[in-house]
Structure formats: structure tokens, C-alpha cells
Amino acid sequence: MKYALPPPLAVPAQTPRFQEKREALLQAAVAVFNEHGVKGATLADIAGRVGLATNSVTYYYRKKEDLAIACALRAIDLHDAIVAEAATQPTVPERVLRYLTGHAAALAEMERGERPPAMHFNDLLALPSPQADEAWARYTEMFRRVRGLLKGPETASLGRRERNARGHLLLSAALWLRVWLWQYEPAQYVRMAAVAADVMLHGVAGGPAAWPAADALPEAGWRLMPRSGDGADESTEAADAFLRAATALVNEQGYRGASVDKISARLNVTKGSFYHHHDNKDDLITECFERSFAVLRAALVQAADAPGSGGARVCAAGRALVRFQLSDDGPLLRASATSALPDQAHRDTVRITLHQLTQRMAGLLVDGVVDGSVRPMDTHVAAQVVVGGINAASELRRWVSDAGPDDAAGLYARPLMLGLMAPAA
């Protein structure tokens, strides 16, 4: 499945050699931006990968930010092409299937070297103006097109907030494919994405019975983090405040966009206070990951030990984590922040831990398949869909500005667990 791409820049064609070098420069830049983030990348590193002197890059792009926006817009163009092809399908389920399998096909082509790699969208907000304004405007248009795939008689009962929340779920599921499809051979990518589409459309729970009334949520008494009065002293509370502020800033602006100055300013404290609690920012980001994994682990452990069916316990874990994301204790650090870590060993540790925790979710799903509360399905793929949706909940307010922990369960976790086709709560 091929998708035509426009030229990387709207400039007059020059010589074939110019175009060849510019294409090589774009591909090298994508690799560097994906690995180090926009702020962490340097023109020297990008130039070195294509055998150019650093100052020669300015012949093609005046600044690093111009190169970054060219890469980002090219990725959005590819995404828009996939959405446009999916939009030709007659029903919501067929459009969702074609959208996710179209992404998987493009990822397989990249893996086989048949298509240039695409830039990740992790650092769009870390770009300076005017590049960030242009990138965000195009990304917002892209989101609206994805949301449009869910418009049909099957979903006519959904209000604007529900459509936005489910559009965010669908877009996030597509972007999450690259996090887990690497576990399969490229020839399997499309088939596994089709399995994920079925999970997205119809959920994991065997029916709405797994979704209790709001006043009877079994996870209501769960503790995912220690709080004041639970033995946490003032110093621990202050350190945790830094972790929350750093996590939110990294999610918004990437690692290098979340400076010590910005973290301190968000808490209205001095840089000296920051260094009283943390030796350096790298250690802080590592602690942010550890905190986020501790929260995810706590929810999964409590779900495993809770009474009830496997499906009910999966739903309970999902609700608890989505509520946490939108609470004063949240958010969790996005998995895309792995590029923030200082070295490959740290990144590998994070990926392995995330994989292990996802397998815990898969174990709960297996329990549900056995007791009949979860539909028969590939539980490993279903766990990826569920964990990916939980991971993306930190950005729900980008599209539903008034979303909060009190309505997060019905607005977001419910379609994650019962499927995009489920009626509104």
C-alpha cells in the first residue's frame, strides 16, 4: 500500500544533484531528530551523516528549525495521505481498519527501506515560533481529519466531547503502532494492525457489564502514589512536585524544552531549590520514568489482586490510570520521552520495563478470556492498545479542554475498554 508524497519543500527544482542531496539531508535529519529530539539535534551531526560541512547545510535550509519543520510537515503529509485513503471507505469500522493498516503498511515499507523514515511528532511544541505555530496548525488539521473518520450513522449519538476524545484515541493508536510493531516481522505489520483495529472498534470487555455505575467503581479506594499523611515527609512531597512539573513539561515540550528554569518557574521556586532535590536534569528524567512506571505497576498489581472477572479488573486498572493522568497527581511521562534519556542503555531499560508492564496487562486480559469477560482475541496486541490509550490520556485536554478526572472514565476510558463503537456513557 503506497502513498504519494509531495516534495519536501515548495521550492523550484534545481539540479538533480541538489535534489538528491536535499533528500539525503532530510532523511538524515529525521533520524537525528527522532533519536535526540529537535533541541538535542545539531546541524553538525546531521551534516556529518551526509558528508557535508555544517555551513553547507544552510544552502538547503537556513536554520535547524527550518529543517525540522520541513521534516515534520512531510510526516504530516504522509499521515494525511493515509487518512484520505481511509476516508474513501463507506463505514466507520472500514475506515478505522484502513487507517490503522495503512499506517502499518507505511511502517513496514520504512523498515524494509522502501520508503524514507518519517519524523515523530514528539517535539512539535518544542519548536520556536513561527515554526511551532505552523506545525501545530497542521497537526490540528490532521487531528480533525482523523476525527472525521468516526463520523457516520453508527456514531450519530456522540456529542462533540465524545467525538474529540475518541478521535484522540484513534490518532494515538496509530502513532503507538511504531512502539510495538517492531516485535513482529514487517510482513506481519498489516495483519497485527488489523487485530489492533478490531480491539479499537469493539473493545476488550465482553459487554457493558464490566462497566459499573460511577458510585460503585471497584478501584475507588486504590492508592497509586503515597500522599500527605501516608508517611510522605515535606521533602518527599517537594521532590514529587518537581517530578510532576518535569513530567508535564517534557510531555509538552520535549526533554530540552523542559529546562531547569522552566521547571522551577512552574513551581515558583528557585533553581537552587531544584538542585537541592536533584543533582541534574538527566537524573530527574530518569526518576520521572521510575515514578510513572511505579504508578502503572501499582494499578496492575492492585487489579491482579482485586476480586471480580478479568475484564472488570482490566477496566478498573484503565479507569484508575486515566483518572490519575488527569488528576493533580498526574500526569505519567509519555513513552515518547525515551529520546530524553542520556544514553542508549537508559532507553533500553525504559523500553524493557514498559514491555514487561504491558505483559502484566496482557495477563489480566488472559484471565478475562478464560472466564469469559474478555472477548477471545490476541491479548498481547490488546494489551498494547490499552496501554497505548492510557499513555495518551495525558494529552486528552489538548482536544477536550474541560476534561477532568471525574468524567475521564466515561469520556475516555470507557471507549478504550468497550470500543469506539460503544454508545456514549
UniProtKB/TrEMBL annotation:
<dbReference type="GO" id="GO:0003700">
    <property type="term" value="F:DNA-binding transcription factor activity"/>
</dbReference>
<keyword id="KW-0805">Transcription regulation</keyword>
<protein>
    <submittedName>
        <fullName>TetR family transcriptional regulator</fullName>
    </submittedName>
</protein>
<dbReference type="InterPro" id="IPR036271">
    <property type="entry name" value="Tet_transcr_reg_TetR-rel_C_sf"/>
</dbReference>
<dbReference type="GO" id="GO:0000976">
    <property type="term" value="F:transcription cis-regulatory region binding"/>
</dbReference>
<feature type="domain" description="HTH tetR-type">
    <location>
        <begin position="19"/>
        <end position="79"/>
    </location>
</feature>
<dbReference type="InterPro" id="IPR009057">
    <property type="entry name" value="Homeodomain-like_sf"/>
</dbReference>
<dbReference type="InterPro" id="IPR001647">
    <property type="entry name" value="HTH_TetR"/>
</dbReference>
<keyword id="KW-0804">Transcription</keyword>
<keyword id="KW-0238">DNA-binding</keyword>
<feature type="domain" description="HTH tetR-type">
    <location>
        <begin position="236"/>
        <end position="296"/>
    </location>
</feature>
<dbReference type="Pfam" id="PF00440">
    <property type="entry name" value="TetR_N"/>
</dbReference>
<feature type="DNA-binding region" description="H-T-H motif">
    <location>
        <begin position="259"/>
        <end position="278"/>
    </location>
</feature>
<dbReference type="InterPro" id="IPR050109">
    <property type="entry name" value="HTH-type_TetR-like_transc_reg"/>
</dbReference>
<feature type="DNA-binding region" description="H-T-H motif">
    <location>
        <begin position="42"/>
        <end position="61"/>
    </location>
</feature>
